Amino acid sequence: MTITKTYQQTLDQIRQNPALLDQYRFEKDASDSKHFDRLRLNIAIYNDLRQTDFEIAKFLFEQEKEWRKVVVDEGVDNLYFSAFLLTLFNNPAVVWLFLETKYIDFDSNIGFDGQYLLAAGIETTYRYLETVDHPDKQRLLKYIGPTAEACFYTQKEIEDWKAGKKDYFQDYQYPIENEIDFLYSTNEKQLFLEALPGWINAQGNWTRDNSLTYNMYAEYAGDILMQIEATRRVVENSNNNIADYYRKDLAALYIGHGNYAEALDILSEIISRTDNKNSLRDYLEQLCRIVLANKTTSNPVTLSAYEIIKREQQKHGSFYPELDNLIKNADEQLSGY
To answer: Backbone phi, then psi, for 312, in 5-degree steps?
Structure first.
């Protein structure tokens, strides 16, 4: 894969001129977070690790840490990989960076593994802590244990955790075995789009697992027809309770593509099997969108959708402000019906 050679060339340039790292700095108000640029550089380091790369890896993690303080709703695997890469240098001084990351917020406290704090080794970490006076030292010791002998983790647990992390990030190890997943993970979208048809054609029997993967890839590709096909495959390969969740998504995709009759068929069938008001809200919201998209009372799909809406409203009363407003808009659009 020539893209990996590009990553290596970039790393070699930075090794020769560390000032180039400034291009990878996270800036809160910048249009580009450089999130995936840092990931690609980390992948290059991972596959050609040199002890002299420590400062590069440390800088990249520090930028990921700053990114995480601002960005909450995006995936954090790049942050975790950056942290894992930094553990490979076995430098206990990074414990303060890891501790800060763990306490960014509630989600980070849960998601950022405590084992990072001891990844340099239990004995190594506590020997280091004996030599420093850091304002967060007591906070750290409270979390990991007061001494090496009274540590809340064992060295075997740390080693098992590191082995598990290596397995988790095996897709980043050369030679790349899963090209399409690598391109997806690294946000190499153009190359991903070129490789996607081959991946689709290579699938034999569609199962729930590869259907879900297809669904994820189709959403990333931004191709609504592909998303419809992928979601249909997920529905076909899921049990009925789970399938309803994806049927709802399929209906939304049909509405987005203007296939209102297909969406109505799905929604009316699901609604006929539930009397749960909370579940109904999402379905009725989509029915309202069908009505509002068809600006004529002569459309049978519009009328059928509206009849279901009014029937459920009469049965359950109000729902929640956004849906109630959509129903009101539908009423106004079909006034006189």
So the answer is: -70, -35
**CA separation (Å) from 187 to 152, 184, 237, 257?**
38, 5, 28, 26
Tokens read off for 132: 């420093």
Q: Between 155-168 and 77-87, two packed helices, what is the crossing angle to 10 degrees?
A: 130
- Crossing angle of the two packed helices 277-293 and 321-333, in degrees rounded to 10: 40
For 9-32, the pLDDT digits (tens) are: 999 999 999 999 999 999 988 888
List all residues 6 or more positions away from 140 whose beta carbon is below 8 Å from its beta carbon: 95, 96, 99, 117, 129, 134
Using 50, 70 and 90 to split pLDDT, how confident is the model at 337? low
Q: Any idea where the domains of the chain sit in the sequence?
A: 2-172, 189-333
- Which residue from 250, 252, 244, 286 is spatially nearest to 269, judged by alpha carbons? 244
Backbone angles phi, psi at 45, to 5 degrees: -65, -45
Which CATH architecture fits 189-333? Answer: Alpha Horseshoe (1.25)
Per-residue pLDDT, averaged over 251-255, amounts to: 96
Tokens describing residue 264: 């109505």
Give CA–CA dist 42/56, Å, rounded. 9
The model's pLDDT over 43-55, given as tens digits with 9 standing for 90+, comes to 999 999 999 999 9
Share of the chain above pLDDT 70, in %: 98
